[in-house]
Design brief:
The complex is a heterodimer. Chain A is built from 2 helices and no strands. The chains are: A mainly alpha, B alpha+beta. Chains A and B meet through helix 1 and helix 2 of A and helix 3 of B.
Chain lengths: ~80, ~170
């Protein structure tokens, strides 16, 4: 019985840690999204002004943010797989 | 409408007619929310990439011969006057700051598109909507919210005739 309680407590602790990680990832995703919208505003302004190099740099930065968001999603998925294994 | 009489655990008739799971209907899961954030991120990146594609298309298009538009006779315009004209589908402003020179700019303010007005006594172009001020000599922003200078219209003078060519 003591072992069972111990296992249950460990499981709860693991789930608590996983939820903290997931919330941290969601916060990072929101931050990346805000950055991307800033980049989009800068690119639109540069495009209207005819400054194409700035628009290209903004797109590259936005692409990096999107790549970071995809990596974070994969990270969460990996955590869920490991947890359910 | 009435519930089934039996207690056998079957759904009442009205729930069969309206099969809504209220719990799921009210809540979005964390997984769905996170996926939606990534979808929005993808959309923002796609919009950025579309801008770059558009600008590459514009640069790749071979420049055609600039269209020429006869504006006015130089002698018809008094010093300090201004005249509005349409060139390449855009409203433009021709001004005569002194006896020797003629200048032309696009009339649309670079802030939110209001038409700018010439003030010869102050040598400025003023946007009445949000008090944007442009230099009447160069079109550069002197004050106010406009983010970019006014595009300049290249002028040619053939004797007494003024011609507009390209908008820079």
């Amino acid at each position: 019985m003591g072992d069972r309680d111990h296992l249950i407590a460990r499981e709860h602790a693991r789930r608590g840690r996983d939820m903290n990680v997931i919330y941290a990832v969601m916060a990072c995703l929101l931050f990346l999204l805000v950055l991307q919208f800033l980049m989009l505003m800068v690119s639109i302004e540069a495009f209207l002004a005819g400054r194409h190099s700035i628009a290209t740099a903004g797109t590259l930065a936005s692409g990096a943010c999107f790549a970071g968001a995809c990596w974070l999603i994969r990270f969460i998925t990996a955590i869920r797989r490991v947890g359910s294994a | 409408m009435s519930d089934r009489a039996d207690g056998g655990g079957q759904l009442p008739i009205w729930k069969e007619d309206f099969p809504v799971s209220w719990t799921d209907d009210h809540y979005i899961t964390r997984r769905e929310f996170t996926k939606s954030l990534v979808v929005v991120s993808c959309a923002a990146f796609t919009a950025n990439a579309a801008l770059v594609g558009l600008s590459a298309l514009r640069r790749a298009r071979p420049p055609g011969a600039p269209s020429r538009l006869r504006l006015a006779q130089a002698s018809e315009m008094p010093v300090g006057s201004a005249r509005v004209f349409q060139h390449q589908g855009r409203a433009c402003l021709l001004i005569r700051p002194d006896a020797e020179r003629f200048l032309a700019f696009e009339q649309k303010c670079t802030h939110l598109g209001c038409p700018v007005l010439y003030r010869p006594e102050q040598k400025i172009l003023r946007c009445p909507c949000h008090e944007g001020i442009f230099d009447a000599e160069t079109g550069k922003v002197l004050a106010g919210p406009p983010p970019r200078p006014l595009p300049t219209v290249t002028l040619e003078r053939n004797g007494d005739e003024l011609w507009a060519t390209e908008i820079i």
